[in-house]
Amino acid sequence: MQDKSVLLAVKQGPCEPEKLYSQKELAPILGKSEAWFERARWSGNGPAFTKVGRSPRYMGSTINAWIQGNTCSNTGQGA
User: Fold this and answer.
1) To pair with 42 at 20 to 30 A between CA atoms, which of 32, 55, 57, 75?
2) Mean pLDDT per 10-residue run, the chain (79 residues)?
3) Is the whole-model pTM more than 0.85?
4) Phi and psi dihedrals of 57, rounded to 5?
5) Measured at the alpha carbon of residue 62, what is the angle toward residues 79 and 52, in degrees to the nearest 5?
């Protein structure tokens, strides 16, 4: 049995690193609406995504990195 602290260190965020997520799956995880993901893709301000056919998908490791990259230490900092 693996130690939970080791699993958390590998995961580094709320998403499983190797899983592809839809915007519907990510919306409740990140506290965003599905419409937010659509606007973020259009404006280029959201997390990077890949297309599987016509459907946008988000790699868990990319979402975790995007969250870490948007970390601020005060409200005056822009993400």
Assistant:
1) 75
2) 45 84 95 96 95 96 92 79
3) no
4) -135, 150
5) 125
